[in-house]
Amino acid sequence: MEFTDRVTRVEPSATLAISALATELENDGADVVDLSVGEPDFPTPENVVEAGKAAMDAGHTGYTTSAGILALREAIVDKLADDGLEHTTDEVIVTPGAKQALYEVIHALVQEGDEAVLLDPAWVSYEAMVKMAGGDLTRVDLSPHDFQLEPALDELADAVSDDTDLLIVNSPSNPTGAVYTDAALEGVRDLAVEHDITVISDEIYKEITYGVEPTSLGALEGMADRTITVNGFSKAYSMTGWRLGYFAGPEELIDQAGKLHSHSVSSAVNFVQHAGIEALENTDDAVAEMVEAFEQRRELVVELLAEHDVDVAVPEGAFYMMLPVDDDDQAWCEGAIEDAHVATVPGSAFGTPGYARISYAASEERLREGIERLAEEGYL
Ligand code: PLP
Q1: 245 in ligand 1 pocket by Cβ < 6 Å?
Q2: Cys-Cys crosslink for 332: which of 24, 226, 325, 360, Cβ 3.0 to 4.6 Å?
Q3: Ligand 1 atom at shortest distance from the alpha carbon of 39
Q4: In the beta sheet, which residues pair with residue 120?
Q5: What is the extent of the structural domain holding 306?
């Protein structure tokens, strides 16, 4: 069989090697502490589950309009307004997950030879999606700056030019948990305006922060007509398996990306969209409880690591942190899982070798166990 350049130029995810090892060990009876997962360990809030069931019982099981049911798009428009973003329901497309939203937006904006800029370490799929679309990547390394963007603005200014087509910003960040300051985002805005760059703002962790309020990039003056805001339900409402997300942007982008949407997925799942309305409108307490638990776990992990003289850049959002490890982070992660039975993700998967990503979306007991084992086996 002959395969397209589009797929052959993309590497399989570096996380696969780790999960394959973890599964092998578990099949052999080992107790693996899995700190590699990118999903909350809480159940979906009960009222959201009930809303999904009720929608199914009410017969909401057919196709919906491609962009998503109006009531959900209205709820999304209200949520975006709370974030300072003004959109109409015609400027929103509901997708099966934020990943599909990013895929559609990137494929609508990037073609052969276009330049996209990433802030490293960056979530694994941005690189793959840009490459599949034929784009070239320019990467700005935030690791020397504790993963913050503000001190790296000069480097970003050097990296972008009039040839830059797209910049992807993800705050709070996966994998670092960094939340970019307003000054950093204003710096991005100035560069985007100066060089006429379109920006994707991936805000999927926006609801999960600890004492800071992340600003939406599209809310800054001059950004409304050049920003596509991506968000989803997986993280804030613990709905990873429901597959529900969305993007909002200028209508011309919606028209073009909407063609990709309707010719690929048609629409997100009907009854899942109904559950999404409940998630947006009636989960304040459930979300606050989950965020509080994540915050306590963050404190615990930072404290336990400090006891072993390991300093980390303390995350202000999401549920990840980057642990400084050996230069050969892939070998470190493979060793950690083989010897300590603790699964983490190598920083090189995110473009930043020398680190391992820890997810603290795990119980306090498992977090203690994992860090103890890493220390015992000489990995800290
Ligand atoms: N964006 C970031 C930064 C993520 O970490 C993820 C999931 O891990 C996604 C987007 C995609 O989320 P989903 O497709 O589950 O909505």
Answers
A1: yes
A2: 325
A3: 8
A4: 141
A5: 5-44+285-376
